[in-house]
Amino acid sequence: MKKSRLRILYVVPAWPHGKSFGKRLRLLHLGRALRELGEVSWVIACDDHDGQTEERTRREFNVAYSVSTEQVAARGFRDRLKWWLDPTFQDPSGSVAKECDRANLVQSLGNFDLIWVHSVRTANMFELWRWPHSVLDIDDIPSTYELRVFGNGDRLVDRLKAGARVVTWRRREKFLRQRFTVLGVCSEADRQYLGGGNHIHVIPNGFERPQAEPKRKPVTPPRLGFIGLFSYAPNLEGVRWFMKKCWPKIKKEIPNVRLRLIGKDSSGPLRPAQPDVDGLGWIADPAEEIASWSGMIVPIRLGSGTRVKVAEAFSRKCPLISTSFGARGYDLANGKELLLADTPEAFTRACICMIKNPQEAAAIAQRAWLRFVQDWTWDAVAPRVWDTAEHCLRLKYANGFADRKSVQRLRDGDL
């Protein structure tokens, strides 16, 4: 008799083999981890891709179908009022899946043993309240983003609006347990923020381990570097804060230092206009470039979740200078795996220290590398994915959604 394996529907908001940034890397590697459990069918709700991206994705994964989206008309007064007052009102955040694709997904849910959905926004695109036998992977908790704007926004009006949105999103987030069977978050801090409990699993962000241990080759003149999607508001705000508050003082101390920017849109009009700043754009393999840096900066003050760029710096043995918020969720010690600094003065001193004390910088990078190998390779993260999926399945069978007797037998294909 032919064995049947676990059937998993994986609903995501981006093509995993597009130009990489944190979200796409998480989608890609969690998808690979789920593939170890069973047969994974991808539903990709994203119109932004090219033929090469689609071909690479379909070559590696089974894409059940891609979902076309359409823009949502501007909310009228009634809908705006519902958004603020009704925590069950689903916010599509600007776009929804077309009606035929929404119907297709709903009709197919019963064909799968497990539904894995990335982000609240993706779930809301399908206007489906209750997702049966499901895991919601939340890499960004909406209210935490607004909370950072409330605390660090430049304008009082923006901070007040963000404060009101914090309250509204917090009410919505209390309903996630009703909508999904199990939740996954990026850090223990996020798990506690959502109230804790065994239905919330921590699935850290990670990065792919290099085939060989990296070797640093800092160059002269020295370089500091930043990597990330430059049009993403927290990245752009962080770099602008650094350029305004820290860069002039660093230049005064080390006149020939250069700042190197890697990532989509970093070579465009958003790049700082100073002549000692190099916008390199997106680089498929930035290993050689990052090896030349004296340090990577993560001057992030806004956003939510955890930043993949932290794990990437560790994976490349690049000394890291970060705000406390930029390194949030990684359980790191200042002076051990990185230098933490939250004021412009402290961030400036940390950057200068990494450049002027290369032996200390190398020792910090080595300790970070050892932590990376232990905790933040995607191989190290995969068992967290499996535990989360199997917990969801145990709850499903206990509640009578199916007549299977053993999650392990289903995973092994013995049913």
Number of domains: 2
Q: Supply the CATH superfamily name of the largest domain.
A: Glycogen Phosphorylase B
Spatial arrangement of strands, main beta sheet: 3-2-1-6-7-8-9
Distance between the termini: 9 Å
CATH class category label of the largest domain: Alpha Beta
Give start-end ranges of low-pLDDT stretches: 400-407
Estimate percent helicity.
Answer: 40-55%
CATH topology of the largest domain: Rossmann fold
The biggest sheet, with number of strands, parallel, antiparallel or mixed sense and barrel status, is: 7 strands, parallel
Average residue pLDDT: 90
Tally the beta strands: 15
Q: What would you call the structural class?
A: alpha/beta
β-strand percent reads 15-25%
Counted by DSSP, the helix tally is 17
The coarse overall form would be globular
CATH architecture label of the largest domain: 3-Layer(aba) Sandwich
Rg from Cα: 22 Å
Tag the structure with descriptive keywords.
globular; 17 helices; alpha/beta; 415 residues; Rossmann fold; 16% strand; 43% helix; 6-stranded parallel beta sheet
Q: What's the arrangement of secondary structure elements?
A:
Elements: E1 6-12, H1 22-35, E2 38-45, H2 51-60, E3 62-67, E4 69-71, H3 77-85, E5 95-97, H4 99-108, E6 114-118, H5 120-125, E7 134-138, H6 142-152, H7 156-173, H8 176-179, E8 182-185, H9 188-193, E9 200-202, E10 223-227, H10 233-245, H11 247-253, E11 258-262, E12 277-279, H12 287-291, E13 295-298, H13 308-315, E14 320-322, E15 339-340, H14 344-356, H15 358-375, H16 378-398, H17 407-412
Parallel strand pairs: 1-2, 1-6, 2-3, 6-7, 7-8, 8-9, 10-11, 10-13, 11-12, 13-14, 14-15
Antiparallel strand pairs: 4-5
Helix pairs in contact: 1-16, 6-7, 11-14
